[in-house]
Amino acid sequence: MSAIDDLPPLRDVIAAHGLSARKSLGQNFLLDLNLTAKIARAAGDLTGCDVLEVGPGPGGLTRGLLAAGARRVLAVEKDARCLPALADIAAAYPGRLQVIEGDALEIDVMAHLTPPVRIVSNLPYNVGTALLTRWLDPPEWPPFWESLTLMFQREVAERIVAKPGSSAYGRLGVLANWRSDARIVMSLPPEAFTPPPKVSSAVVRLDALPAPRFEANAKVLLPVVKAAFGQRRKMLRSSLKGFAPGIEDHLIAAGIPPTARAEEIPLEGFCALARRVAD
User: Fold this and answer.
1) What pLDDT is attached to residue 3?
2) CA 175 to CA 113: how far, in whole Å?
3) CATH code at 227?
4) Is the pLDDT of residue 46 over 90?
5) Contact predicate 85/58, CB 8 Å
6) How many domains does the chain have?
7) Whose CA is closest to 152, among 108, 185, 201, 189?
8) Reduced 3-state DSSP string for the chain
9) What are the beta bridge partners of residue 182?
10) Is the pLDDT of residue 2 over 60?
11) Mutual orientation of helices 218-230 and 171-179 as an angle, nearest 10°?
12) pLDDT (0 to 100) of residue 1
C-alpha cells in the first residue's frame, strides 16, 4: 500500500518542501504509508466521525485517516513549513481537511469539530503527555472525544496501560484507567521514523468510559495521586502527610495500610481515599 491515493510518496513531499524534522518541535516523521494506514485502522471505523490530528507534519497519517473514510480531519500544525504539503492533501480531498496553524495546547478545537469525534495523532514527543492529561481531565465527563489513538515513546505508552505493582505504574496509569479502557495496539521500532529516535514507539488506544470507573472527585483524586507518586519510595503515611489532616485515619478507613507505597495501591483504593478526604 505504498500508494493510498494519487499524491506523491512522502519522501518526495519532504524533499519538495524542504521538511527536515526539527528536534525542537519533537518531530519524527513516519513515512511508510502502510504504517500510517494501519494506525488509522487501529482507531476503528472513522466514517461519520470528525478526527482531530495534532502535529500532522508532511501528512502521512492525515492521508491514512482520509483514505480510511474519516468524515473530516482537523489538523493542528505548529510548523508553518508543513502547511503547503497539507494544502496539497486538502486539495486532493475537497472539503474534508481543515488545517489550523498553531499550538494545540492553546487552540479551542471544539469550535471546529462536530461530534462524534475521535483523536488520532503521532504526537510530538515534547507535548504528548501534556495533551493526553488535558484530554483525560476535561471540566466535564464524558469528554468531547469517543476515543484517543495516539503514538508515544514506548516508555510513556507502558505507563499509560500499567497496572499496580509494576515499576511503570503511576499517575498517568491511574488517570487513564479511571476514565478509559487503554491498551497498546501497535509497536514501532526507531527505524520506522525519519530521523530515527533513540527509543521505540507504541500506539495506545483509549476508549472513553461513559462514567469514571469508580466514584471520586477529580479535584481531590488527581492531587492525591500526584502527591502519592511524587515520593513513590516512601510509605503513604509519609508521602501524603501534608495533604490532609489525619491522613493515617483516612488511609485506614479507605482500606489502605498506611505503610503501603503508591505503586501497590489499585485505582479503587485511590478513589476510596479521595472520597474519604473529600468528606
Assistant:
1) 67
2) 25
3) 1.10.8.100
4) yes
5) yes
6) 2
7) 201
8) CCCCCCCCCHHHHHHHHCCCCCHHHCCCEECCHHHHHHHHHHCCCCCCCEEEEECCCCCHHHHHHHHCCCCEEEEEECCHHHHHHHHHHHHHCCCCEEEEECCCCCCCHHHHCCCCEEEEEECCCCCHHHHHHHHHCCCCCCCCCCEEEEEEEHHHHHHHCCCCCCCCCCHHHHHHHHHEEEEEEEEECHHHEECCCCCCEEEEEEEECCCCCCCCCHHHHHHHHHHHHHCCCCEHHHHCCCCCCCHHHHHHHCCCCCCCEHHHCCHHHHHHHHHHHHC
9) 206
10) no
11) 150
12) 41
Amino acid at 129: T
pTM for the model stands at 0.94
Per residue in 208-217, pLDDT tens?
999 999 999 9
C-alpha cell at 258: 498506611
Cell of 129: 503527555
Whether the predicted pLDDT of 43 surpasses 50: yes
Query: How far apart are the C-alpha atoms of 275 and 269, rounded to whole Å?
Result: 10
Q: Does residue 2 fall inside a structural domain?
A: no
Tens of pLDDT, residue by residue over 98-125, are 999 999 999 999 999 999 999 999 998 8
Cell numbers placing 251: 488511609
The CATH number covering residue 87 comes to 3.40.50.150
Identity of the amino acid at 273: L
- pLDDT at position 22 is 82
- Is 251 found in the same domain as 151? no
Domain range for residue 92? 10-208
Place of cell 489513538: 149
- Do 186 and 170 contact (CB within 8 A), yes or no? no
Contact 78, 99 (CB under 8 A): no
Residue pair 76/107 in contact by the 8 Å Cβ criterion: yes
**Residue 225: which of 262, 254, 182 has the closest Cα?**
262
